Amino acid sequence: MTRNRDHRRGAITRTLLLSGVAAVLAAACAASPDPDVGAAAPPAPAAVVAATAPPVAVRPPTVSPISAAAYETLLAHPSRPAADRADDPARKPADVLAFASIRPGDTVLEMEAGRGWYSEILSRALGPEGKLIVQYPPEFAYGGPAFKERTDAGGLKNARITITHFDKLDAPDASVDRVLWILGPHEIYYTPKDSAGLGTEAGTYAEIMRVLKPGGQFIAMDHAANAGAPSSTGQTIHRVDPAIVIAAAERAGLKLTGKSDVLANPDDDRTLMVFNPTVRRHTDQFLLRFMKPA
User: Fold this and answer.
1) Strand, coil or helix: what is 142?
2) Which of 199, 241, 243, 288 has a 20 to 30 Å separation from 226 between CA atoms?
3) Contacts of 69 (CB under 8 A, 6+ apart)
4) Separation of alpha carbons 147 and 120, rounded Å
């Protein structure tokens, strides 16, 4: 059903585009001389045209917002694992996807994709004409069997799995519409055992900037540490102060364009390890949207 729906969306989009082209052609025809009326007046001299024609403003295409309700059908897909669905109330994926404006046909790079919980939803949201680039570092070896299980079950047909550090993303320059980093920005301040690190801060955000198309968006979500907390909280309690993420992204040239408190939890004092059972799956989380300037 999702594939048919995505085809219908594509058909609608193509119809709208063709309608726009038709309107332009109709306007051009209206401006052309009608042979049944008589010869057209001679064209104005170039100097007159240049002096009188108003300047044409060229703007990038606008993207209208999408409501969270538009994604509910994806979440109810019958082949979606029951264990995944059980986390929906806490993780609020429809709200997150709406904030990120994920659309059929987009190319999305999902950083640190974990065991594929979001990957499977993103894959369906992007549709058969979209592309999903899944990334996780080699140190997170649990990703291999988790993604194999999902692909063996017939999922992620439009996905390409990449295993790299965060500062070595496997995507061409200016090729990605959205980069999503879900519950992961703190990891560049975390060094696993027997690892030299998962990527430098400057290198990672430079890579995000590199792969995004002009006007493309970077979506960052993570467990919040208290304001002013050092980046070392990424190592100790797997949290990060959102101000650290904002500063690093802006140094790379990204522009902050939106924030959401949909995953905020004021009852979390931001000091506990995120795996502590008293806060696990209910941490105070921030959600940020950045744009690469066009």
Assistant:
1) coil
2) 199
3) 94
4) 10
What's the average model confidence in pLDDT over 17-46? 31
User: 220 — phi, psi (to 5°)?
Assistant: -120, 125
- Residue 188's identity, in one-letter code, is I
Task: Report d(CA 237, CA 223) in Å as an integer.
Answer: 9
Which of 108, 115, 123 minimizes the C-alpha distance to 144?
115
What helix, strand, coil percent values describe the chain, rounded to 5?
A: 40, 15, 45
> Which DSSP string corresponds to 166-222?
TTS--S-TT-EEEEEEES-GGGGG---TT-S-S--HHHHHHHHHHHEEEEEEEEEEE
In whole numbers, what is the pLDDT of the chain averaged over residues? Answer: 83
Q: Are 108 and 122 in contact (CB under 8 A)?
A: yes
User: How many alpha carbons fall within 13 Å on the CB side of residue 86?
Assistant: 4
Q: What is the DSSP letter of 239?
A: -
Q: Give the separation between CA 142 and CA 163, rounded to whole angstroms.
A: 12
Instruction: Inform me whether the pLDDT recorded for 96 exceeds 60.
Output: yes
Alpha-carbon Rg for the chain in angstroms: 23
Asked if the 82-291 domain carries CATH number 3.40.50.150, the reply is yes
